[in-house]
């Protein structure tokens, strides 16, 4: 595995007015890794993602994307993003799957450029990767939650990103679709070497497929390889105890 | 009717304006509706009223303004209103919709003050409120053609950015698009289209021409491009049909155009229901076959 660092976070802290949300977060993610980021509600997961995606301005610390300071980083097409919000998008929006996935190329193509034949082929290819090619001309609102989420993955993949960030992507998706979805993520990581950062509440569902685990509750309570995490957890009844008594993930007792 | 169009310049101007407005209002309307910003068009049209009233007042006091079409002042106010809406949306981040009633009531209040200073209503103002077949001058037509060229060119050039922003603003931001700039250009275009449309449909009904054809097409369209295409067809049908009815029955065109748009909306809803019932029956017959 190539050890090129995709994401580096250096002593990152963030406050919303007086309330501290992130305190001295420090970790890095190398190419080909699959990181599961877990933490209770209000632990700062979403804020951390927003900072990584450049949606919030840094207050203290530094983020490097592909070796560049985030303030100088311009190649956003290298980062694919699937938001939790995708589950709550306006299902009445009159857009076909093809149009939705093509919108993932907007930044890469640049201003004033139009979609060419090759770009449409890339759209079909991205849909093929997630097993949704036959739905290409369907309106997005006609699909099930699991299918919609696959389409949003295709939108993120269409610009051929090197890092895919997913913010609780399976919220509101049934168990079967959830399993298939996680299998797809595993394939993307294994077969295509895509680096993944997955925010999830259900660590027990992903420990077999992720390479690294990060536990966040304002501070980074644990960061390491999955095996190290398992060792760290042996004999403990809850993941965060004694760090954060309020957090009891379902997988902790298994 | 056709003889009238050939014979009278004012009728030619009206129909040409109508045809243009029938394209650009639903074109931008499609983006407005899917972004749930329908009320922005209403707010800006009311600000435009203030601009028209200001021009009518100035025309009474200064001869210079009497020779200028109020459309220019209306456009200026409309664009100013668009800027203010953006400013307020930035200041009320958690209550962004507040900017719309603030600008709308501010526009009406300013308009009423200008109207009362100009000693009340006159027929000219009435035609701005409800539209008129005879109100479009050659200069108005030139301005409207210019506006339509700008609007169509910008939408064509920024289509994929506008689509990405409309479908998922957060994703557009995360992918590095200049969301603020694109949104501002969009609101600016809305202000221009309102100015261009108000001569025909009138200030009070201008927003309906941006929303009703889209509301009809959204029920039956497959994809966003088809939504735009059908919206323009419905917009053209409403405008040209409405103008014809208005000419023959001597009615304010704003009313006839919008009532036709409502009729199209009702018919598409019936059509959609028919499609759903047919699909439902199809499914049941498949189930029946499967069970047998």
Quick gist of this model?
The complex is a heterodimer of chains A (254) and B (292). With 254 residues, chain A is an alpha/beta fold.
Description:
The complex is a heterodimer of chains A (254) and B (292). Chain A contains eight helices and ten strands. Chain A has 254 residues and is an alpha/beta fold. In chain A, strand 4 (60-65) and strand 5 (68-69) form a beta hairpin. In chain A, helix 4 crosses helix 5 (145-157). The radius of gyration of chain A is 18 Å and the shape is globular. With 292 residues, chain B is an all-alpha fold. Chain B has a single domain (2-208), classed as ABC transporter involved in vitamin B12 uptake, BtuC. Chain B has helices at 2-7, 9-34, 38-61, 63-66, 70-91, 99-117, 123-130, 138-157, 159-167, 169-174, 179-201, 206-220, 224-249, 253-291. In chain B, helix 3 (38-61) crosses helix 5, helix 5 runs antiparallel to helix 11 (179-201) and helix 7 crosses helix 11.
Mean pLDDT of chain A, to the nearest integer, reads 86
Tell me, what's the shape of chain B?
Answer: globular
Say how many strands of chain B there are.
0
User: Span between N and C termini of chain A?
Assistant: 31 Å
- Counted by DSSP, the helix tally of chain B is 14
**Mean pLDDT level of chain B:** 88
CATH topology of chain B: ABC transporter involved in vitamin B12 uptake, BtuC
How would you write the strand order of the largest sheet of chain A? 6-7-8-3-9-10
Helix content of chain A: 25-40%
The rounded Rg of chain A comes to: 18 Å
The amount of helix of chain B comes to over 70%
